[in-house]
Amino acid sequence: NARRVTLLMRPKGSPRAFEDDEKAKAAVSSVLPAGWVLEVLRPETLGLAEQIAVARRSQVLVGTHGAGLTLALFLPPGAQLVEIYCGDRSRRNGHYRTLEGMAEPATTRVRGPTRSQFHFPGPYSEQCKVTDWLVSLAIENYNIEERVSQDLRAARPDVPE
């Protein structure tokens, strides 16, 4: 199964829509390792159940700050969130940092010093753009978390998933 980076797009004209959707897709695509694919999510075109299904199959969710990022609650264990601050929202909006603290204990049974953050807030910019290095960091973090989980499961097969 391919690993997925899901790019949450906003309708044109939204104050937090990407400056250029094609450039946003290209920025994510440019850092996808072998075996990873880009999935574009336009929430306004799907029902809630379909949006949740997209989140459940995503290893990395990328989007601008806003209600659509509440889909992070439905990401699978170990998944990563890249939050882009732009337009009318600054980094002072800490809703999804709060979700990180709430969601991680519920999504994984094995916690320890190797567990790290899943929320990667981008730097604020007036223009809404994808930061490719931040997406790359989230992918790398997912891969590390996955390897750690596999090693822990191999070392402790008696611990339920």
Number of strands: 5
Helix content: 25-40%
Give the rounded overall mean pLDDT. Answer: 79
- What is the string of helix and strand elements? EHEHEEHEH
Lateral strand order in the biggest sheet: 2-1-3-4-5
Count of separate DSSP helical elements: 4
Radius of gyration over C-alpha positions, nearest whole angstrom? 16 Å
What is the overall silhouette? globular
Look at the helices and sheets and give the structural class: alpha/beta
Keywords:
5-stranded parallel sheet, 161 residues, 5 strands
Structure report:
- With 161 residues, the chain is an alpha/beta fold.
- 34% of the residues lie in helices and 16% in strands.
- It has helices at 21-29, 48-56, 95-107, 132-155, and strands spanning 3-8, 36-41, 60-64, 80-84, 119-121.
- The chain has a 5-stranded parallel sheet with strand order 2-1-3-4-5, sandwiched between helices.
